[in-house]
Design a protein that fits this description.
This protein is of the alpha/beta class. It is about 50% helix and about 15% strand. It has helices at about 10-25, 35-50, 65-75, 100-130, 145-165, 185-190, 205-215, 225-235, 240-245, 245-250; strands at about 5, 25-30, 55, 80-85, 130-135, 170-175, 220. It is globular and about 50 Å long.
Length: about 250
């Protein structure tokens, strides 16, 4: 039975990944700051799907905690076959109104942890000749809306490069670029989503299923739903001054 490690597994898209992977028969290593939530998730999934769930509390804004997770990924006696780098959050205020420490902490979670954990997982998986890495990015990475957007742009391009480096190794790398999704993320970030039409909102269940199907197909970029495929294509083709001037870039973040 294969094992999947999911960061940010206690809620939202990460919890949905944990549930669907357990449904598929994967044992799990679940990572988040909130140990109580992880223990509750462990009990639910083990009872419902008869899989083994390992709880690994970690704050991915802390370099030492990132290393704890990297060491788990590198452990040859307990191989991890699928890594889902999902942990993340946004800040309420624009860059210049935030404390720089808050900006640094966010970038550590969104960028540094993805970099360190992907490195550890890819080396271990390549040595075994099989495995998959999913890095959760965002359609916001094609926009121009502060450091969150910039961080997600990094994750997207980084994953594309990693996929190329892993070609023909038996290991794949896929970047998931969702749009607005109904989870706790927007509530925590103070993003109310007023003015966003209902058809632009995604459900976590469907986007995670679509992503896992894309991983099975070996796709590098997974953009769930037709509307966000169109939006992502437009954002990549439009002149950058138009992208920078867009209302979404100023007001909202997927």
């Amino acid at each position: 039975m294969s094992t999947a490690l999911i960061t940010g597994a206690s809620a939202g898209i990460g919890k949905t990944f944990a549930t669907q992977l357990a449904q598929r028969g994967h044992d799990l290593v679940v990572v988040a700051r909130n140990e109580q939530r992880l223990e509750e998730l462990k009990a639910q999934l083990e009872d419902r799907y008869s899989v083994s769930v390992e709880v690994l509390p970690a704050d991915l804004s802390d370099r030492l905690d990132i290393q704890l997770v990297a060491d788990r990924l590198s452990d040859p006696k307990r191989p991890v076959d699928l890594l889902v780098n999902n942990a993340g959050y946004g800040l309420k205020k624009p860059f210049l109104r935030n404390e720089i420490r808050d900006e640094e902490d966010m970038l550590t979670v969104l960028v540094r942890s993805v970099n360190v954990l992907s490195h550890a997982a890819a080396l271990a998986m390549r040595e075994r000749g099989h495995g998959a890495i999913i890095n959760v990015s965002s359609v916001a990475g094609f926009m121009a809306s502060g450091t969150y957007s910039a961080a997600k742009s990094y994750v997207t391009v980084f994953t594309e490069g990693l996929a190329t480096e892993l070609a023909r190794s038996g290991v794949t790398a896929t970047v998931l670029c969702p749009g607005f999704t109904r989870t706790e993320f927007h509530e925590r970030a103070g993003i109310k989503g007023h003015g966003i039409p209902d058809f632009m909102w995604l459900q976590a269940d469907s986007l995670v299923k679509a992503c896992l199907d894309d991983v099975d197909k070996g796709k590098v970029i997974s953009i769930p739903s037709a509307q966000y495929k169109i939006a992502a294509t437009a954002l990549r083709l439009l002149p950058r001054p138009i992208v920078r001037a867009g209302k979404l870039a100023r007001k909202h973040r997927p």
